[in-house]
């Protein structure tokens, strides 16, 4: 088997469009989506709503945009958003909830990959003379920073139930919700049934070059579309990209289990070296997070740079933490080469 000079495991966002996607981009019907007359966008939004069990959906340029649109649609300025310490909207969206929506943040612990319901419920404030009230609860599934962990359905059900009783909407950052569904066997529609809105990405494991879908009620999507325009997300012939999303949903969801198996095998291989800290039992989907040992004399940043010199691209996730993500363009047959390059890097810089 030919091993590439550079193996890219930084993220599943590095996937390239399939040949079918490239052809679809050339041949699809397009219109002007701002005028709401792009037939390919309409087809994607209709298919998405049917697959996830929502009333409607909206094509968005990125997952961050979709999350920020959801926050702005659900909340009013000054309200509190409850979200996990390690959530994407907290760490990787440039403080958008404050900048775009003028909201405050109340964190709860999600260090294990998901929060304890009690911790989330404790953050829920009622609006009164002294407090602005909680305007939104945000959850994440799968959890990026916690290694692709799947949010247990019983936890989602308890949190959303209590939020609903208090009139607080719940948004699910489901960037990799299809990974969660394939790995758990739980339909995406089941997750959707317990939240008020959900976002998922087409550009990660589903290999589209761009695009994310925001799902919710007709009224929610109507409001969110105005927010999208305000954010500069009204595109013209967006069908060129939506055509790729159709292929993602129709053809690439079922193969995600291949990425999960590759990640599981890779984690076992990393563990077998004895050079890194990792618990293979926690690997549920396509993300593998592992740590340099406490006695290591280098940082994760230095290790990442050295690994790139060995032809292996990984991501730093903390002072000692490293991440690799399996994806459609990764051949599981390269696992041994990845292990060899990790070990070689460690020996080289130790």
User: What's the rounded overall pLDDT mean?
Assistant: 96
CATH architecture field of the largest domain: 3-Layer(aba) Sandwich
- Largest beta-sheet characterization: 7 strands, mixed
The assigned structural class equals: alpha/beta
| C-alpha-based Rg, rounded | 21 Å
- DSSP helix fraction: 40-55%
By DSSP, the count of extended strands is 12
CATH topology of the largest domain, by name, is Aspartate Aminotransferase, domain 2
Number of helices: 14
CATH superfamily of the largest domain: Type I PLP-dependent aspartate aminotransferase-like (Major domain)
**In the CATH hierarchy, what is the class of the largest domain?**
Alpha Beta
Alpha-carbon distance between the two ends: 30 Å
User: What form results from the Cα inertia axes?
Assistant: globular
Point out poorly predicted stretches. none
Count of the domains: 2
Order of helices and strands: EHHEHEHHEHEHEHHEEHHHEHEEEH
Spatial strand arrangement across the major sheet: 2-8-7-6-5-3-4
> Proportion of β residues?
5-15%
Topology, pairings included?
Blueprint: E1 7-8, H1 19-27, H2 39-52, E2 56-60, H3 63-74, E3 80-84, H4 88-91, H5 96-99, E4 104-108, H6 117-123, E5 134-140, H7 153-165, E6 170-173, H8 177-184, H9 188-192, E7 197-201, E8 212-216, H10 218-230, H11 239-252, H12 256-273, E9 287-291, H13 300-309, E10 312-313, E11 315-316, E12 321-325, H14 335-349
Helix pairs in contact: 1-11, 2-11, 3-10, 6-7, 12-14
